[in-house]
Amino acid sequence: MTHPADPIVSTSWLANHLGQPDLKVIDAPFYMPGDPRTPQGEYGAAHIPGAALFDLEAIADHATGLPHMLAAPEVFAAAVGAMGIGAGDRLVVYDHIGLLSAARVWWNFRVMGHDQVFVLDGGLPRWIAEGRPTEQGAPAPVPPAAFVANVRPALVRTIDQVKQALDRGGQVLDARSSGRFRGIEPEPRPGLPSGHMPGSSNLPHSEIVLDGRLLAAADLAAKFEVAGVDPALPIIATCGSGVSAAILALALARLGHWDTPVYDGSWTEWASQPDAAIVRDGNSTHD
């Protein structure tokens, strides 16, 4: 399989290619629990001309009780096909933060077998700051397209697979903040304890993103080294609910390691288990 040289495209590149028939732009707003903003509202307020709206909570598996879990392949294919996205299209994904949920949507498409997907450097904030055009309003009707999902199980990890990896001394890297990882700051989801999986490491996603842009490869490599993980060896990315973990996978792709799996349920699933093994600031407990 031939991968692109980089998973990121610049705003100038997108501006120069916007409107090409095989290029589809995806707007992927996402907000944490309790945030009054909604994807539909933020998309309606401003989006890149012609962009389709991808709602992570809507295009998801709603049977699990966990937030924005991967949708079944047929559900995903039908949803993105209805957005006018076909199997042969090149995709550019952005979000309204700079770099957060765009990485999760990038990963979703890669899980579904679509490699021609990229993340916009700096997202909508950078696009707007550069004076580039935006549109307002709800998504315009588009002709449906045929999207075929060919799932890559190797890019996804379940809780049992994560436990097995930790038992073998494997690398599990958590993208949450240091305070949440250490168990000294609360989780944003009510009733969910903070802390981390025994044997996991921490690299907050905020440390590899600057002003909404992913760090350069050399700087990323240094961050992974400080976190005590080796990008050349298998890594499972995790976070609070599987969103910012995809930023770690995106960063590893920039370093040439394209197939980093994400633990889809992440901390929300792990810490919800009755017998969850949790480390808090050096103390191991079972909740």
List keywords for this structure.
Oxidized Rhodanese, domain 1, 5-stranded parallel sheet, 10 helices, globular, alpha/beta, 3-stranded parallel sheet, 287 residues, 14 strands
Quick check: average pLDDT?
95
Order of helices and strands: EHEHEHEHEHEHEHEEEHEHEHEE
The side-by-side strand order for the widest beta sheet comes to 1-5-4-2-3
Give helix % range: 25-40%
* CATH architecture label name of the largest domain: 3-Layer(aba) Sandwich
> In one word, what is the shape?
globular
Overview in brief:
This protein is of the alpha/beta class and 287 residues long. It contains ten helices and 14 strands. The mean pLDDT is 95.
Structural notes for this entry:
With 287 residues, the chain is an alpha/beta fold. It has two domains: 144 residues, Oxidized Rhodanese, domain 1; 133 residues, Rhodanese-like domain (Oxidized Rhodanese, domain 1). The protein contains ten helices and 14 strands. It has a five-stranded parallel sheet with strand order 1-5-4-2-3. A three-stranded parallel sheet has the order 8-7-11. A hairpin with a 2-residue loop joins strand 13 and strand 14. Helix 4 packs across helix 9. The protein is globular.
Could you outline the blueprint of secondary structure elements for this entry?
Blueprint (H helix, E strand, L loop, with lengths): L7 E2 L1 H7 L5 E5 L11 H7 L6 E2 L19 H10 L7 E5 L6 H11 L5 E4 L2 H7 L26 E2 L1 H9 L3 E4 L3 H5 L18 E2 L6 E2 L2 E2 L2 H11 L7 E4 L6 H10 L7 E2 L2 H5 L6 E4 L2 E4 L1
Parallel strand pairs: 1-5, 2-3, 2-4, 4-5, 6-12, 7-8, 7-11
Antiparallel strand pairs: 9-10, 13-14
Helix pairs in contact: 4-9
